[in-house]
């Protein structure tokens, strides 16, 4: 079974979820820190502006307007090392500039000493506070926020780098953790696959600490132990049942045979002979039912199987049925590829082919033909040119006790059921097709169906 894709795999989704959580956590932390830094930078700007404004207001109160203009001019003469820009505007109430480097009054209220960020006409942003110095005199002081913005930019770079590092570490850690979990789950899946392939003794190896997956492995092994015990118990019951039923029937057959030897009554002899025939029929029925049940119980169980030559089995059957076909006046053709091998029970594969051939000979009248084909795969085809099988019956004929009209003998309708059970035990399928005319039985691997 192919591995699911990244987003279909539970381990891939867990890894991606961990990555997403780490990235979202990093982003949330960045936003919180950014807000704190932005608030601190704004508070620092406010303190600088307020301190400068208070100093200039004291100068105006103590020394007058001209001294204030001189002190504002002094501010421009000082070169700031931090790269920040400063703005001043001393103006009348109508906005006429008296001193400073602002050409017009910004949208900020001096009568309430408003302080906020203001965007200037050239698009630059400043934090400013305005105040009313006296009748017909107002002052605004502003500072740029280069340091705060630079700090925020560095902070963004730092968090982006940390986020990338965290994402990488999360992916690596998630990959190794998911791979370890995947390997442990795949050990369970591999065990089930081995059991399906016939290795009923397969078990999940113990893994890791006492966690949920270890508990899963333990429960899986316990379940497989129980299944193996049930299979063995079924085999034992089947064998015991066969012995307990077959033995008295054979004893009864022996007593009938002795009775036949002791009598000279022709009618009684005929009755006893029919009784023996019915006993043998019951024994065959019992054997067939037990064969079907036992074969179905061993479906996928590879124990007791060995590499066998299907070509040799088919050749031997072809020789046997070829001789029978001549006596029945039926044409028989065999096309058997050499070297076809399969891990199988040789006797069961012979039973499979012979049951299909028996079915073909049973429903083909004298003058008809039957063919046996064996090719790589393996692919086994038994075809006849008889009346064929109606479409409605092509699945039903593999059920127990089903016999179509026109059968030439008094069988129990179990031959095809046993053939299907044998095919399934070996990982093969069996179906019937229209041969136009006649029927074509095809045996092939399950993955080719």
Protein model, in words:
- The strands form three sheets. This protein has a five-stranded antiparallel beta sheet with strand order 2-1-5-4-3. The chain has a five-stranded mixed beta sheet with strand order 7-9-10-12-11, covered by helices on one side. Strands 6-8 form a two-stranded antiparallel ribbon.
- Strand 4 and strand 5 (137-144) form a beta hairpin.
- It has three domains: 10-150, 2-Layer Sandwich (Beta-Lactamase), CATH 3.30.450; 212-297, Helix Hairpins (Orthogonal Bundle), CATH 1.10.287; 306-448, Histidine kinase-like ATPase, C-terminal domain (Heat Shock Protein 90).
- The protein has helices at 10-63, 65-77, 146-196, 212-261, 266-297, 310-328, 346-363, 415-425; strands at residues 86-91, 97-100, 115-119, 125-134, 137-144, 306-309, 331-336, 341-344, 369-375, 379-384, 428-434, 439-445.
- Helices cover 55% and strands 16% of the residues.
- The chain contains eight helices and twelve strands.
- The model has no long low-confidence stretch (mean pLDDT 82).
- It is rod-shaped, with a radius of gyration of 48 Å.
- It starts with 9 loop residues before the first helix and ends with a strand.
- Helix 1 (10-63) runs antiparallel to helix 3 (146-196) and helix 4 (212-261) runs antiparallel to helix 5.
- It has 449 residues and is α+β, with helices and mostly antiparallel strands.
